[in-house]
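Quick one - first record:
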Amino acid sequence: MASILSNAMIVNAQSSVSTYVTTAQELYSELQTVINNLTAAGFMGDASNGYREFFTTKATPALVNNLTEPQGSLTAGINSMLTTIKEQLLDTVDPGLGKLNQNPGQA
């Protein structure tokens, strides 16, 4: 079934992306706390350093830079795409033209 794309749909989608970003950031913060606690004074040495290095060099870029950063991340790209759709497709449509197209030959 076809649906009509509206500004409200774009706003709702962007709100969902924002909620996702907030949730991902909260989970990242929790994970960071777990890693910090895990590698605290009672757990030292190569294994502890390995956890910290993995978290810093692999997990952080994947979870922050690539996923939730305001610029250049996946979610930033989705938001940009939604804004472009709204600006180029929805904001440029003349509502009067739509009404005329619904009743061709009546104007």
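second record:
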Amino acid sequence: MTPREIIAEAWAITRREKSLRRWGMTYSLLETLLDLKLFSYQAYFLWEYLQGRQSGFFDVEVLLYEAVPFWFFLTFVISLTLLIVVELFIPHMAQGAIIGLAAKSHQGDELKGGFLLAIYNFVPLFAIHEIFVLASTTTSITVISLIFRYVDSSFHIPLIIGVVLMWGVSNIIKFFASFAQPAVVVRRMSVAAALGQSFKFIVSYLNHVMFLLLLLFVISIRIIINLVTVLLIPGIAMGIGFLLAFFLSTALSVMIAVIISVGLVLLASYFFANLHVFKAAVWTVAYIELSKKKDLSVIMD
């Protein structure tokens, strides 16, 4: 298949398979919620830092403890902890299901076993993600925030430069590992073998995978939109709540603001879900098609 045919096939799979979009929605919703929490916390820490005040990691929880009844505070903390655990682990399970079902759709198989694919591939996909954890913009911003708050100011500049460099290097290496996740799911390869095969495919068939440039462009747009959305959602919610407070009671204003925030998160997650499924389908279809080619390092079988 040509790069254009691969992209067309991946988009057709994305539009055709509802089960893939459901898994994609799960992935994007949890990822958006986690990013939203991380950016909200970092915005609070930045505000405190600019005001010249010390901020602790649990300041929000302490303020909540002092402002609400204990039963509400305990329920909130337990629910928040469980949600964070779900947001950290379930997306990797969803990724395994997305890749596996996309591969089945491309080969004309019946789309069954999504949950089994999610469970079976969780550990290797989680390991691959952790290898490139600093490639995440959100994670790098969080690390820089920790440096500002807990490290002596004389070390700020070199440590931040180091984090930025590691972010850049991690993204470059992650690019060469683009086929690692499909290799793990489709071929059931080990993490090390999948990373090695991915690097070999990228180097060997670079002229056959020019669609990567288009894909990287789409990913860049997604990251920018994701960042803007995550930053705007809390601001929109607070702005609406503040305006409504002039006309309605505080409790009703907060309730309306929360409902609007949930709606915005769901809308953004639906949009990101299609992009994520499309990206995963592109890499999966490309991996399957490239796997059919003869290994360029082998002269005779």
